[in-house]
Amino acid sequence: MSKTANVRPKRAVRRPDASAGIDRGVAPVDLGVLPDLVGYMLRRAQLAVFQDFWRAFEAHDIRPAQYAVLLIIERNPGLRQSQVSAALNIKRANLVALLDSLERRGFAKRVPVATDRRSYALHLTDGGAALLKKLGELSAAHEQRISATIGETGRKELLRLLHGVVQAVGPSTTDDDES
Amino acid sequence: MSKTANVRPKRAVRRPDASAGIDRGVAPVDLGVLPDLVGYMLRRAQLAVFQDFWRAFEAHDIRPAQYAVLLIIERNPGLRQSQVSAALNIKRANLVALLDSLERRGFAKRVPVATDRRSYALHLTDGGAALLKKLGELSAAHEQRISATIGETGRKELLRLLHGVVQAVGPSTTDDDES
DNA sequence: TATTGTTATACTCTATAACTATA
DNA sequence: TATAGTTATAGAGTATAACAATA
Q: Rounded to the nearest 5°, which phi and psi values hold at B27?
């Protein structure tokens, strides 16, 4: 342990006798090892990326989880709620309101299944398909904005590393299982 | 490394001959482009890593945000709450309860500042310093668990890419500002 | 008896406004 | 007037338990 990366010389907490802490710049706070902790940087990066995503999808009032659900329904027409729940790590109970919203807004629909009247087959509406077409463009631009900062090579490498972390460190929470 | 990645028995969704679909086993859900979206993978990775972190720090009942606050106080003794707030992207209002908890448990303390009676200088207690020493070991082991999956080189590279993303895509929300 | 979708509920995080006591 | 810390509150996101209908 204690590779103790860059030990910055602690910047004196300059504090004038009156007020005016620092001219007008950034806080002189030393983050220490935090920037070297994967968890900390993952959280910061996730917040940053989600913020860009949110801004891009704001006009359509679609959030990450909703986009993921739409995408998975598009790719797997007829999917059941429990399957979406398991695939995306969303509790069955929490998926209900999300789908209610998508259905109410005319993007997705629940179709009764003749062979199993407990469940519904999920499908996109024409409006939902059209929406996804537009969102796909916004998503591509969003990804490109990321590529613009770390390069497309860096983006691919980032994805590769994230997959490695996910697969090994936390193979997802086995989802929904309750009771 | 993935030691068999213990795949839960996951009762095969045994279902009559009705809707054939796919045989037993894992969910036959196609995630489509989701695994190629940085935002989606960042979220999955963050959840996975935080889960490992949580398990590691569980015995001490310390969560990521609390650990970050303790670290930053250790590195910058005498820091004001507003500075911690700005540095860690935690709203001033939300920092109060967090510090109350750390203070109540004897890990940190608020020391009145003679020159400005509105604010407090934050310091670790001896107990807090001792705790951090122990937590540092757990944190190092936690990072090593990540290195074990993508290699120490991969971990370093991951950190580099995450920094790139954070700096360019979202230089943090300028924090607390309200009103 | 087990599963699907559902409701109700609770707990954590985060966000905003407004208050106090200082400055 | 502006700022530091605080309070209260609201909103997401996520977690569990229990129920009805169905398998």
A: -60, 130
Task: Give me the count of residues in chain B.
Answer: 179
CB atoms within 10 A of CB B7: 10
Assess whether pLDDT exceeds 70 at residue A8. no
- The pLDDT tens digits of the residues spanning B153-177 come to 999 999 999 999 999 876 665 444 4
- Identify the domain containing residue B152 by its residue range: 60-167
Q: Do B29 and A68 touch (CB under 8 A)?
A: no
Question: How long is the CA B148 to C1' C8 vector, in angstroms?
Answer: 43
Give the CATH number for residue A110: 1.10.10.10
Report how far residue A104's alpha carbon sits from residue A95's, in angstroms, rounded to the nearest whole number.
Answer: 14
Return the structure tokens found at A18.
């009156």
B129 touches chain A (CB under 8 A): no
Tell whether A10 is covered by a domain: no
B37 in contact with A at a CB cutoff of 8 Å? Answer: yes
Determine the distance from the C-alpha atom of residue B167 to the mean position of all C-alpha atoms in its chain, rounded to a whole number: 18
Q: How far is A90 from A88, CA to CA, in rounded Å?
A: 5
> How many domains are there within chain B?
1
What pairs with residue A90 in β-bridges?
A: none
Q: Report yes or no on A49 lying in a domain.
A: no
The string of DSSP codes covering B7-42 is: ----------SSS--S-SSS-----TTGGG-HHHHH
In a domain, B120, yes or no: yes
pLDDT beneath 70, residues of chain B: 1-27, 170-179
Question: How confident is the model over A106-116, as pLDDT tens digits?
Answer: 999 999 999 99
- How are beta strands B120-124 and B108-112 bridged, if at all? antiparallel
Reported as a single tens digit per residue, the pLDDT across A128-170 is: 999 999 999 999 999 999 999 999 999 999 999 999 999 987 6
The bases of strand D with some atom under 7 A from any protein CB are 3-9, 12-18, 21-23
In a domain, B93, yes or no: yes
Q: What is the pTM of this model?
A: 0.85
End-to-end CA distance of chain B: 49
